[in-house]
Amino acid sequence: MLLSLLFLVYKKIILLNEETLILLSFITFVYLTSKNYGDSFSKYLENESNNIKNNLLRSLKKIYFGFLKFSEYKKNVNLSIYNFSILGNYYRKLMFLFINSLKTFNKINTVIVFKKRLDYLKKIEDHTTKLLALLIIKKLNKVITLKKFYGIHIKNRNFLCKNKITLLEYIKIINKSEYR
Q: Is the pLDDT of residue 11 over 60?
């Protein structure tokens, strides 16, 4: 190969300039390096490629397990969302029942309280009626005693006449009650 290169330079097929010399020295360097260090260099490259392969496999496994965990979390989140929606529906139903029960309780409680108040008012009305009746009876007794006093002791004609009229009315009432 070296002889063929010298022959090409000698025939001026290849010009010997700086670039050609740099290319020639690079090719020579690569050839000698691969000849002397080829096995160790290929072993080094093979080790590096195996390391890269192992790193890639580990990374892919981690990514795979990460995706598995992510899909599991996503399923759990979807399940949690579903469970929360069911829980929300139960809560709404419970609140609806509670509100309806509260309305019913308030109605019943209002009826009970209103009934108690009405009973209390009825008692007050009865007591007031009795009290008024007693007061009226007391006042009428005073009026009757005064009327008798003025009719008997003072002997005013007006009162005497009214006394006789009252006696006649009493007699009529007694007669009517006897015939019954």
A: yes
pTM reported for the whole predicted model: 0.38
Whether 102 maps to a domain, the answer reads yes
Burial string for 129-144 (b: 16+ CB within 10 Å, else e) reads eeeeeeeeeeeeeeee
What is the three-class DSSP state of 12? coil
Tens digit of pLDDT for each residue in 134-158? 998 898 888 878 777 776 777 666 6
Helix (H, G, I), strand (E, B) or coil at 155: coil
| 178 has pLDDT over 70 | no
What's the confidence (pLDDT) of residue 164?
74
For tokens 């990374």, the residue is 59
- Residue 93 covered by a domain: yes
Confidence class for position 61, pLDDT limits 50, 70, 90: very high
Query: How would you class 55 by CB atoms within 10 Å of its CB: exposed for 0-12, middle for 13-18, buried for 19 or more?
Result: exposed
How far apart (Å, rounded) are the C-alpha atoms in residues 142 and 151? 14
Give the C-alpha separation, 109 to 101, whole Å.
12
Domain count along the chain: 1
Task: Go through 91-119 and write b for each residue having 16 or more CB atoms within 10 A of its CB, e for each that does not.
Answer: eeeeeeeeeeeeeeeeeeeeeeeeeeeee
Q: Locate 71 and state its tokens.
A: 């899909």
Domain coverage including residue 170: 19-179
